[in-house]
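Reply to dn_fold:

You asked what the input looked like. This is it:
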Amino acid sequence: MFMLSREIILIFSGAEFLDAIPAMRFMCVDLLFSSLNGFLAWQILAPCNKEKWLFFATIMGAFVDFVLNMALIPSFGTSGAAAATVLAEMVVLLLCSLAGREFISLRGVWKYLWQYLLASLPIIPICYLTQRYVQGSLAVTGISVVLSVIAYAGMLILLNNPYARTYIQEFFRLLHLHKGEKRHGKD
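and this is what came back:
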């Protein structure tokens, strides 16, 4: 989404919204933090009766977001608001991580992070080259997404990522089952 912000905005909103590209890119970063927050909050803290920590983290995040919005919006507009949201989510993640450290090892969460970051790197040249040599926002988006998924999965396989192996094996198992059902007329 970060690399295809322009195309996505053109497809869904139109050229008059191209000024939203920087804000959209900030919000792409926010997806990482908010996903981790959601996991920590509702899969770890809430079931472990740490609602007070969750409430405190949420209040602190809202406070940070409010203060940063007041400081950043006058100078940076929507990009300032998006940056404030990212920083507030980081605060919430830090507090939820502290609260959940007795229930989940964050070392395990971060163990394969370098692989995911490394596997993401080919997406940059794929999107750049597709944007340069392909015409049309829909075509650029479609081609970029397909090639990026293949490159990302391929990199994770090369890096011997255990989760990627498991998901790919499951994908081919399901594909094989589906083909078997079609041959036997169960479709």
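The two ends are 35 Å apart (CA to CA).
Hope that clears it up.
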